Amino acid sequence: MIKVTTGRLIGVGIATCIVTSASIYMRTSLADRIKNQKLCIDCYHKLLLHSPSVRFLGEPVILQKPNLSNEFNHITKVKATIALPVSGSKKSGELLIDASRNEDETKWTINYLKLKVKKEEILIE
After folding, report:
1. Which GO cellular component does the record give, naming just one (predicted)?
2. What is the pTM of this model?
């Protein structure tokens, strides 16, 4: 039988806190890095310039961190599909980005940009 001491319990508790804190930090920093990418910022600005979408959501329109567990989100060297949550004073939804690029380029080409609110989709670009 394993002898459980107070010291071991405290050690396990501290290790659990460290691992949990590290995973929360990594998840938050990854979501921030995706949100602050030039592609995402450019698409957000295009949303703000699309007046039907802004009227539909209600001003101000706020860009939020992406949900990393969303299956739509997939980024490789040459293809990116990202769902960015956006919210306005009237409604909330997702800014759906589909972009691609050549391996030797740094600039993304937006294939389509849509605003999805519940079952409605508004094509922005």
Report:
1. mitochondrial inner membrane
2. 0.81
